[in-house]
Amino acid sequence: MTRRAAERRLATIGLARRHATQVLQAGLAGRPEITTSALLYDADAVDALVARAPLTVAEVLDTCPQGLVVARRTTSCLDDLVDGWDFGEVIGSWINLRAAEHGHVPLVTTRVGDDPSRPKSTLTLRPATGWVEAMSGRRLARGPGRPWSLVGFDALPSEDRHVGG
């Protein structure tokens, strides 16, 4: 199927054309066959993406009771992020608080826009644990918004949501 047809198919699960293009460019439907007039994707691979079951916040919290950080990044390699990135004071405080309490905070990163002029802070990354397998092959809809979001933050007890001074 052509890239445009694949984007239309991905739109059926709520992906805007721009996001569908990013999903395809990231290789989630495999490498396209390049012709002189179109990029052709395997229809079964695109259909497999559409068929992925969505994750609910409750399912995320069953696997990650401390919540989950989703970061939208411009790089496709986490090694490129070792110099840090800016989550801001509030989100940085929340991550530090949850990491101190639980030993870690699960992080999922996706590849989208960023503002390189913003100041950076350091984040130490470790290999993922069992939560990855529990969510593998699923889809977590986040919609448009900030370059980061906290999944499950609102579902945590109010004393766990307090961040900052």
Please explain how this structure is put together:
This protein has helices at residues 3-11, 17-25, 43-51, 57-63, 88-102, 131-135, 158-161, and strands at residues 33-34, 39-40, 68-73, 107-111, 148-151. By secondary structure, the protein is of the alpha+beta class. It has two domains: 3-51, no CATH class; 57-161, no CATH class. It has a three-stranded mixed beta sheet with strand order 4-3-5. It has a two-stranded antiparallel sheet with strand order 1-2. Strand 1 and strand 2 (39-40) form a beta hairpin. Helix 1 packs across helix 2 (17-25). The chain starts with a helix and ends with a helix. Mean pLDDT is 76; it is low at 112-122 and 158-165.
With strands numbered from the N-terminus, the spatial order across the biggest sheet is 4-3-5
**Helix-strand string:** HHEEHHEHEHEH
Rg on CA atoms, Å: 18 Å
Name the beta content range.
Answer: 5-15%
What's the β-strand tally? 5
Mean pLDDT: 76
Topology overview:
Layout: H1 3-11, H2 17-25, E1 33-34, E2 39-40, H3 43-51, H4 57-63, E3 68-73, H5 88-102, E4 107-111, H6 131-135, E5 148-151, H7 158-161
Helix pairs in contact: 1-2
Write a concise keyword list for the protein shown above.
alpha+beta, two-stranded antiparallel sheet, 7 helices, 35% helix, disordered C terminus
Short note summarizing the structure:
35% of the residues lie in helices and 12% in strands. It is built from seven helices and five strands.
